[in-house]
Amino acid sequence: xxxxxxxTKEIQKTQELIDFIxxxxxxxxxxxxxAAELEEAGYEQLNEAKEWTLHKGGRYFVxxxxxxxxxxxxxxxxxxxxxICASHSDSPTFKLKSNYEMTVDDRYLxxxxxxxGGMICSTWLDRPxxxxxxxxxxxxxxxxxxxxxxxxxxxLIPNLAIHLNREVNKGVELNRxxxxxxxxxxxxxxxxxxxxxxxxxxxxxxxxxxILDYELYLYNCDAGDVLGIHEDMISAPRxxxxx
Length: 243
Hints:
This protein is 18% helix and 30% strand. The protein is an alpha+beta fold. The strands form 4 sheets. It has a 3-stranded mixed beta sheet with strand order 1-2-3, with helices on one face. Strands 4-5-8 form a 3-stranded antiparallel beta sheet, with no helix packed on it. The chain is globular.
């Protein structure tokens, strides 16, 4: 049997994908990072609120709502057709609700989340999870939407121990409101109120009162990896559809 050989270029492209996924934990980070790569490649960012001046052979892109981006190039000569590629910047995950903290017996803190997108719920169990997205901050002279990535093993959605559910290997339907709430804080003393808001404020170096709103999502902290006998497979979160 002829052995499969992975080329240096394929290894490089694979690592670029894994690195991009790692630094893109939310759809807003995806767009921010793509915009940075386009600018590095010579693309000019356009503003939808202003008149555009376009030139033959020009490279341009425009973003909207920090969550979508359109990039295009113009031909040097007469336009003979279009080549179009489309994708989406978000991935199936859990979104934090507005009332995001839930305490249990004043000893445990769970994050109140809702399902976002079509996901395989069981794959989220027993994994290190963190939170990323964007936060609207009051700057005094106006408001600003700021990207945030807590970038640490912050919480997890624990499985129930098998001796408490002997039927688990026969198939279990997970209740999204009861079984899929991430555990974020366990202490022997009373749970600190507004614990998560304080964590956000420290990360952004602002006061809690300056945080006006947010759109935050859970993400899997596991890094992508290459595996297989011939190292020809990729395992990584958010492959749908950052690839």
